[in-house]
Every structure is written in structure tokens, then in C-alpha cells.
């Protein structure tokens, strides 16, 4: 990575699970570098959803290095998720035809309730399947699965946690970390955001900012995807031996049923 820059640049790891991300800094500029980032990044940049893509370079070994503008800013606070700017950015993403077209070109196919239920059933281990909260949740998914219908697929982020929302020093809001991007029911993103951050009595108001109406059908879809996502999170944390986090999401399941 160092040979891409002159000696006045410092290259340091940006951390993360893959070890493929770096910061490059000198006196006047700071870039966020990533090795073998998806071509999807270019469309996200063009749509103004992530910080600007500065350049892309293909290396002799076939690796592709991307450099993005590295902005000064901060994570969105949990309470700020109620703001209309979060709702409007998520709506822009869900309505973006260029994003959807690019994921389709990359070979992505819709990830609906049947695919997600199959993933849940094949992922949960025998020990978790003996727990009451897990059994109750799985029964709900199976019982309501045929009632979960998506009329219009969209690009979904899949992890709308507040720490993936970046507010720049110039007051621009971005949604970052798109490694889990999928073509799915918008109710997946909506359910996670509303259940995690918005009091139930304010759901209708938040969805009005987004441009949707809270109907029994949408409410069921959001609940279904949130429960399925939580079950997968429980198993993921267990696999990583993060027992405290696993217990947190197991307890959270009981609030959803």
C-alpha cells in the first residue's frame, strides 16, 4: 500500500475484521483506503450516500485500491435517529434505481423472507434451539412467513446502527459500511431502525418523514425481519464467544414476542 504514495504520507490500519482498510495521511490531506472494495462503492459515492470516492487503482497483482475522502465528523447519536434527515436519507437509498441496478449487475438477487428463514434455520445451533425465547421466535417466523410479501424490492443496508451514520463537520449525513448490502424488503431496514431507536408511539410520525404509512401489514413485516435479524445476531455473537452481547440479544428477543 505504501508504494502508492510518496514518503510524506503515513499509512496506518483502519482496523476492522478484514484488515483491508487503511488511513493515508499527510500534512494537507487524509484518505480512507480500501483493498478490493466492491464496484458498488462508486455508485454510493455518486449518489452522495458515502463520502466522495477520489480514485480507484488496479494493482499489478489484481487488487483494486479505492481512496475516499476522509471527513472529520462524528457518529450519529441514538436520539438523532429520530430526525427527518435520517428518514429522508434512508428513503433516498431505498428509492435509488442506480444502486439497485448495480447490485443486480453484481449478481445479487432478492433476499426475502423465505431466504432469511432458511438462513435462520440453518444457522441456529442445537443449544440455542432449546431456549424458550428462540423457540418462540422461530415459531413466529414460521407461522407468519407466508404473510410476509414484498411488492417492491430495494437496496437495503442491513445494519442501520447509529454508529454507521456519519455526520460530517460540514453537516452532511452519510450511511457507511456497506459490506452487507442486499436487495431486500425495505421493511428490513425500517424495522431495525424503528425498533432500536424510535418509541412505538412515534413510529407513524417517523414513517411520515420517510414517506410511508404505518399499516398492520408493514408493522408485521418490520417485526418479522427484526426477529429474524436478532436470531442471527444471537448466533453470530455466540460464534465469536461474545457471551455478554449474545445474552443482550436473547433478552431483547423476549421484548419482541
From TrEMBL:
Gene3D superfamilies documented for this protein: 3.90.1200.10
Pfam families from the xrefs?
A: APH
Where is each Aminoglycoside phosphotransferase domain found? 14-220
Listed InterPro entries: Aminoglycoside_PTrfase, CcrZ_PhaseVar_Mediator, Kinase-like_dom_sf
PANTHER family per record? CELL CYCLE REGULATOR CCRZ, PHOSPHOTRANSFERASE YTMP-RELATED
What protein name does the entry list?
A: Phosphotransferase family protein
> Which organism does this sequence originate in?
Lederbergia citrea
